[in-house]
Design goal:
Elements: H1 2-18, H2 28-36, E1 45-55, E2 61-73, E3 78-81, H3 83-86, H4 88-97, E4 102-111, E5 116-125, E6 130-135, E7 159-163, E8 177-187, E9 197-202, E10 213-215, E11 221-224, E12 227-229, E13 232-238, H5 241-248
Antiparallel strand pairs: 1-2, 1-4, 2-3, 3-6, 4-5, 5-6, 7-8, 7-10, 8-9, 9-13, 10-11, 12-13
Length: 249
């Protein structure tokens, strides 16, 4: 009787081992399909670059990428980013101080599906650090998600998501996605004497994150990253929800 019971236990254990799941290797096609099934509006994102045409000592034209930022679609051919990225005066001053001759400044937008198209500034709000840009040329061939403003501001501790290209990390089909929380309203840390109030998010922020959208669980816009804290990259600051809504309206 004991032998039969031991035999049954051995057979049961052997069956469980045989039924264990084995890891399977996915092809790139499978991984891409999984990414496309996300509920987040990934195709709303664009990476923005400022390209400066400079003259070398040999009097030849050379294109230099000066800076990069993040942005997002708000209409068929319009994107929003941070105003400090759009300020051409700072770019001109940089090259003039280095006694470098430059011809023109071009802004380029790169979408998730790999299209590159020129963008021009149409509206600049320096106080709120928001910039509206228009893509030049047809955009109907570009796959895009147009972001809509949320009806309400996130509550304290609400989970949010950030689509960004920190340090310029972004390629066609690959977009960093971050998760964090709304942490409330605070005084703008770069200039506390002015008492400017901004929304604060616990999100990883670095150079290149400027202009990136902050989304709620429904994929609606609640914030725009415009600044962080040097030496502590886990806090991001956005113009207040009400100001973004006013800017888009």
């Amino acid at each position: 009787m004991r032998i039969n019971r031991m035999l049954l236990i051995f057979i049961a254990c052997a069956s469980l081992l045989n039924c264990s799941c084995q890891p399977t290797r996915m092809s790139r096609f499978d991984v891409w399909n999984m990414a496309e099934k996300t509920t987040l509006p990934l195709h709303s994102f664009v990476k923005l670059s400022s390209i400066v045409s400079v003259l070398t000592k040999e009097a030849e034209e050379e294109l230099v990428q000066f800076s990069s930022a993040s942005g997002f679609f708000v209409s068929e051919n319009q994107v929003v980013t941070a105003a400090h990225f759009c300020e051409t005066l700072s770019i001109k001053t940089y090259f003039m101080q280095r006694k470098t001759f430059f011809d023109r400044i071009t802004f380029m937008a790169e979408t998730l599906d790999g299209h590159r198209i020129e963008a021009v500034i149409t509206r600049l709000e320096e106080d709120d650090d928001l910039c509206l840009m228009m893509l030049i040329g047809p955009t109907d061939h570009i796959k895009k998600d147009i972001l809509k403003m949320a009806d309400r501001k996130p509550y304290h501790g609400e989970r949010v998501y950030n689509l960004a290209a920190p340090l310029g990390v972004f390629t066609a089909g690959m977009l960093p996605v971050f998760e964090g929380f709304f942490s409330g309203i605070c005084t703008y840390p770069k200039n506390p004497s002015t008492d400017i109030k901004v929304d604060m998010y616990s999100l990883p922020i670095n150079k290149g994150s400027s202009g990136s959208p902050v989304l709620n669980r429904s994929g609606e816009l609640v914030g725009v990253v415009v600044a962080g804290i040097q030496g502590f990259e886990n806090l991001g600051f956005s113009p207040r929800f009400e100001l973004i809504k006013q800017f888009l309206n």
